[in-house]
Amino acid sequence: MQPTPEQSPHHAYPDHWEADVVLRDGGTARIRPITTDDAERLVSFYEQVSDESKYYRFFAPYPRLSAKDVHRFTHHDYVDRVGLAVTVGGEFIATVRYDRIDATGRPASAPADEAEVAFLVQDAHQGRGVASALLEHIAAVARERGIRRFAAEVLPANNKMIKVFRDAGYTQQRSFEDGSVHLTLDLEPTAESLAVQRAREQRAEARSVQRLITPGSVAVIGTGRNPGGVGRTVLRNLLAAGFTGRTYAVNSAFAADQATIDGVPAHRSIGEISEPVDLAVVAVPADRVPEAVTDCGEHGVQGLVVLSAGYAEWGAEGRERQRELVRQARSYGMRIIGPNAFGVINNSDAVRLNASLAPESPAPGRIGLFTQSGAIGIALLSGLYRRGAGLSTFISAGNRADISGNDFLQYWYEDPDTDVALLYLESIGNPRKFTRLARRTAATKPVVVVKGARHSGSTPPGHAVPVGRIPDATVSALMRQAGVIRVDTVTEMVDAGLLLADQPLPAGPRIAILGNSESLGLLTYDACLAEGLRPRPPRDLTTAATPQDFRDALAEALADSNCDAVVVTAIPWVGENGEAESGDGEVLAAALRTAAATGPAKPVAVVHVEIGGLAEALAAATSTAAVPPVARASAPDASATPAHRTAAPTAQVAAPTAPTGPSASATPGDSPAQQRSDTDPGDTPAVPILGRIPAYPAAERAVRALAEAVKYAQWRRQAAVPGKVPEFLDDTIDEAGAAARIDALLGPDPDPRGRSLGHDEACELLGRYGITVRPTLPAPDPDAAVAAAARLGYPVALKTTAPHLRHRADLGGVRLDLANEAALRRAYGELTDLLGKPTELQPVVQSMAPRGVDTVVRATIDPAAGAVLSFGLAGAPSELLGDTAHRLVPATDRDAAELIRSIRAAPVLFGWRGSAPVDSAALEELLLRVSRLVDDHPEVVSVALEPVVVATQGLTVLGASVRLAPSPARTDLGPRRLPNY
Fold first, then answer.
1. HEC profile for 864-901?
2. What mean pLDDT do residues 795-822 have?
3. How far apart are CA 289 and CA 340, in angstroms?
């Protein structure tokens, strides 16, 4: 919506202030600047506000707005006078306005930096978090316009508005003057205000997902009149799953007298349904979707699952159709899964929703699954179904034009029905937010990710996302920093998910291996070594081992304090008559599960070769039966097991028997006592409902899943005590001076492409952060080189600085340890004879640094991932092998320590082959200083320190380059808003 010319003669309409937001109840609304075209909307809005709310706003009865009021509230200059409105369905539901004032409270212009602010929220929408969202946005607008404080007068009885200001997290002062509460808010964001904002974001976005997957009623728009077709299939799956709510079939082609279809009420439109509809599944051609969305929006539908294709995956025209779909749905306060989606499943017994095209509905379980691909979704559902795994929720988001993996991370974070989150992602629309949410979620439950379309230029056409410049290996390292378990294939994701969902986390990397095949045990041993685990020598039970032998061996291994996890290997065994025993898989499964349930809480995985029924029996749950008690080994200290669920306490159990009776799934974390049958209260203890044990057809797959669990458990232990930025850095950093210097270097009209700093400029800026670069002097000719060496002192180095030769010692562009004038002149002649004229080589002279290890420290701003700090050894081998470690900025002391230890060549820094260890503390401090520089000043888009020579005491930075550019937008730090893809 654009203003008329009289609206703002000097300032254009600020369309970047427009934003879609999620409110506290999960609905959406739009925030935008008020224009002169909004007069009628403003009057209509005001008429729907109660007299009490009007009194709170104007401190007196104010039944209607005068023409002068309407003109004042709709005419703004977008600098000193700004008004924002919240709209749903195109109509106002709330407004906020600020007016810049001077110290006496009179209207003013810049440089006055205070403004008076006032809100008005329609009574029907109070309690939805509207005012809180508005305060975030009007505060961001004010900061952009140079306003640093808000002043507000609030009546003491207006508790809701006082609470909005009080809970915002800003620094504030309150006083009582002339019968009103006078509030002053400092608009500089604080750690508390950011925490409040993100907590509200989490609650709102989780609620918006909850509305989609826990509906009380579902309408399938596009239900075919004949069997088959997308809509009819979804309707059939809804009915087959036993959906607990109301179901409706909608098709404009239904006959007027058709009352039902498949036993479900049939209607020609949503408007014909007399009861509220919470969720609509849209399965009509793309050109008919807008009509369906309008029908839904006008009749209060809360959310949409759009299965229809023909959007961004079809090119530019489809992409615009997709954007319009999102705009239309959000204008009515609805969120969308899709378009081009496969559907959603919620296995909660209170909902039993299968609004998808899934041919096989998974059993209830503890795994949440999100995928952006319908085909991959089918494959994952099928694989989990075959392996007996259960799901809490499943979402296939298609083009994920609105609801994304970030939203489901918000939901799963506190979902009590989900223990493990699995995500197949082909694109990440907001990487900074994804990393933040994944880190928080991973601190409570595992997050396993497969990233498809990993290579440049292969982003799916339906996904509009920022294009990153960092390689996939860097993305993987950054995910692991956030605690994400990054795997390469969907098979590995299922393997890891099964282990993490059904087993406690290991306390360490020590692995016991036992089984009835020596060869399979050795393969498992080798796989453990390859994955960085510490396996114990395999225990061969021989091919004559019975299920009881397996049970005893597993119980012994679990009870061993030097064992953190167990891998059981099994091949078919032969009975006394030379034939395979019948039911061997079920019997062995019962034995293993009994031993696992009665021993200390440690993860167990099974590798089997063609043992019929074993995997199925391990994935099922046993019934209860009266049995003689068997003593159980005592469990270790619970604190030693960093499990993401509570380990089962000691219980009486039975000898292994083949499972009988109906299958039932145990809730992970429930104790055997909690799992006993309520129908057999006799004195004899009952067999507990034993937990599942994951089974794998290959040793490598089992061990890889176990290795991921070990690394994740280690991350969880470390994340429990987060790192910090040492306080000593503050005493040696001149943040304000650096900011002023950056402003001067960029100038009043900076080039959006940025600029590279000269050597002296870079050294000066780095010096503001305590980073000293060893001086160099230009040497345009031999005499200048000798003069420079005399000034710096021998021995010296002679180096070329031409871009094509910089840091290329292998090309002969560096001469070291030149001890006197003769050696320097000789080296100068060799350099120019070999590589070219001095004007081309741009040689410099530098004094020699103490001997040490040459390293490289870099920081870059990637448009997709944000600021990234990198470290590696200098030289071609490290570059060739990609041996570089990465961490997100801001880095903590723990990040810096891990960074230098995570490269493969790290032993070179710590005394490899008898060499003296380098000063790692000095190196960690340098990394933290670079991190602070790019975090404090987003205009610093690139820093490269190369080489950094790290000696046994101290380090020397021999070369540095810095690039500046206008500060990019930080969407992760601004007010809450939904992305527009």
1. CCEEEEEEEECCHHHHHHCCEEEEECCCCHHHHHHHHH
2. 83
3. 12
**pLDDT at position 453:** 64
pLDDT in tens, 57-97: 998 889 999 999 999 999 999 999 999 999 999 999 999 99
CA distance 859 to 855: 14
- Do residues 89 and 330 lie in contact, with contact meaning Cβ atoms separated by under 8 Å? no
Confidence of residue 971 (pLDDT cuts 50, 70, 90): low
What is the C-alpha end-to-end distance of the chain, expressed in Å? 20
In single-letter form, the type of residue at position 131 comes to A
Distance between CA atoms of residues 12 and 4, nearest Å: 10
Looking at the predicted structure, is the pLDDT value of residue 630 above 60? no
CA distance 483 to 819: 51
Count Cβ atoms below 10 Å from residue 452 Cβ, excluding itself: 17
User: What pLDDT sits at residue 684?
Assistant: 36
Closest CA to 944 of 956, 962, 924: 962
Q: Which H or E run contains 681?
A: none
Amino acid at 196: V
Phi, psi of 378 (to 5 degrees): -60, -45
Q: Which amino acid is at 308?
A: S
Question: Which stretches of 482-546 are DSSP H helices?
Answer: 490-502, 518-530
For residue 965, which of 944, 934, 931, 926 has the smallest C-alpha distance?
934
Please report the sign of the dihedral spanned by the C-alpha atoms of residue 658, residue 663, residue 668, residue 674: negative
Residue 756 β-bridge partners: 963
Q: 111 preceded by cis ω (within 30°)?
A: yes
- Cβ atoms 761, 750 nearer than 8 A: no
- Amino acid, single-letter form, for residue 223: T
Distances (CA, A) of 600 to 509, 560, 636, 717: 16, 9, 6, 19
CB–CB of 894/886 below 8 Å? no
CA 321 – CA 287 distance, rounded (Å): 9
Q: Which two tokens stand for residue 531?
A: 């994955």
Torsion sign across C-alpha atoms 923, 925, 930, 935 = positive
Burial class (CB in 10 A: 0-12, 13-18, 19+), 714: middle
HSE-CB for 561 with a 13 A CA cutoff: 4
Query: Which structure tokens are listed for 473?
Result: 């290996």
DSSP for residue 810: G
pLDDT at 840: 85
3-state secondary structure of 214: coil
Q: What is the rounded CA–CA span in Å between residue 951 and residue 943? A: 22
Cis peptide preceding 795, ω within 30 of 0: yes
